[in-house]
Design a protein that fits this description.
Number of strands: 16
CATH architecture: Sandwich
Strand content: 25-35%
Shape: globular
Length: 266
């Protein structure tokens, strides 16, 4: 993996994360590495899936049900869940310094990674993932020591389903979430659509958003005729976080990527 210039947050960026719940960092991945991840994902979509990784591939529900036909199999994929468990290239992704050097000043030096996903928004696919808080799914605390990352592998903006955030919403408590129709079972909060404070982020390939686990965020539809929207996501939590209940989600498995583990913690 090609090294990029060492990344670190300025005092202003750390303050932005504290006050607004997110920060955008440019050029976390080099274009060379962006191309490698896009190429490997395309190999998966064409049927070159590692042995034992069938559950990794999640099709768009409409494609899976035969309601929508796609000429290119890649345009029928919703996401790959935990590809790092099946592929060496993706296995290295959560440990790269470009991510960890930004995460460390936000949640501390002892860091565990979990839930790597490669997520598509194919062109002309009408699918909105509503405003939600990732912490709704995370059965450990404190959520202040959990940070999500959303790294663009294509130029992303309002036209192809970029990330939309509500600055400062991480200061809210965990809100009630209701089941929404969409790709699989997804949950969202009510009453925040078209919020006056929402910010639609514009990213270049290799740029990443680092955000608090309670930050309200969503992605819109890809309304373009031909533009892809591919992103890599991974979450990080302090190794000192403690379970609230047993983890009900088999997809969430923690891996130490920096520092050390602690007994009785995640």
């Amino acid at each position: 993996m090609k090294a990029v210039e060492k990344l670190s947050l300025t005092a202003e960026e750390r303050q932005q994360y504290k006050e607004q719940g997110y920060v955008v960092v440019r050029n976390v991945l080099s274009q060379e590495d962006v191309d490698k991840y896009r190429a490997r994902a395309r190999e998966f979509s064409q049927g070159n899936v590692p042995a034992g990784a069938d559950k990794m591939v999640i099709q768009d529900v409409r494609v899976a049900k035969g309601l929508v036909k796609v000429e290119d199999p890649e345009h029928g994929i919703w996401k790959y869940v935990n590809p790092d468990k099946h592929d060496e290239l993706f296995a290295n992704y959560p440990s790269q310094p470009g991510l960890l050097d930004v995460v460390e000043p936000l949640i501390g030096k002892d860091i565990k990674a979990f839930l790597v996903m490669f997520i598509y928004k194919p062109p002309a696919m009408d699918f909105v993932h509503p405003f939600h808080q990732d912490a709704y799914y995370f059965k450990f605390e404190p959520h202040d020591l959990c940070c999500g990352t959303w790294l663009a592998l294509d130029k992303t903006d309002a036209g192809n389903g970029t990330l939309v955030v509500i600055p400062g919403s991480h200061k809210l408590d965990l809100l009630p979430h209701v089941k929404s129709e969409g790709n699989g079972i997804i949950y969202g909060v009510e009453g925040y659509d078209d919020h006056p404070d929402q910010v639609t982020l514009e990213l270049e390939p290799g740029d990443a958003v680092f955000f608090h686990s309670r930050l309200l965020h969503k992605t819109g539809s890809n309304t373009s005729e031909w533009r892809q929207r591919r992103v890599l996501t991974v979450h990080y939590a302090s190794s000192k976080c403690t379970p609230i209940t047993d983890n009900p989600y088999e997809q969430i498995q923690f891996r130490l990527v920096r520092g050390k583990s602690y007994e009785g913690c995640i």
